Amino acid sequence: MKTQYELFLSFRDIEWVLAIAENLSYSKAAKQVGIHQSTLSLRIMAIENLLKVKLFDRSTRQVKLTREGSVLIETFRMLIEIFDNDVLDTINVLAATEGESDELPKNGTVDRSQLSDQHPANDEQA
Q1: How confident is the model over 20-61, as pLDDT tens digits?
Q2: Residues with Cβ < 8 Å from 122, sequence gap 6 or more?
Q3: Which domains does the chain have, with CATH numbers?
Q4: DSSP secondary structure, the chain, as one string
Q5: pTM over 0.85
């Protein structure tokens, strides 16, 4: 079942929102992510319209997170952390199994049972 948000919010969008939240400045965030401030402003407005929530209160002098924005920022941070950890796990699996097979899993995922006995993530299962 597809949600109304599916395929519209990218990791890039999340990174841009997080950059503003960390800097509390559109110009600093734009510089950090390497885009023009106007591009960032337009995309944030589009994200807010998509999510039907205002993420930031902004004036000519300051940017503040809204209450809703604060909640979503924490969710976005968790998503990025989960994604980063899964990518690192996958890289570790591939490095540990280098030479064993030239073929990646058919579905593009690696579950923890495929980790070598020496991999630190296997200790978490015990």
Answers
A1: 999 999 999 999 999 999 999 999 999 999 999 999 999 888
A2: 112, 115, 116
A3: 11-125 (1.10.10.10)
A4: ---TTTTT--HHHHHHHHHHHHHS-HHHHHHHHTS-HHHHHHHHHHHHHHHTS--EEE-SS-EEE-HHHHHHHHHHHHHHHHHHHHHHHHHHHHHHTTTT-S---TTS---GGGS-TTSHHHHHH-
A5: no
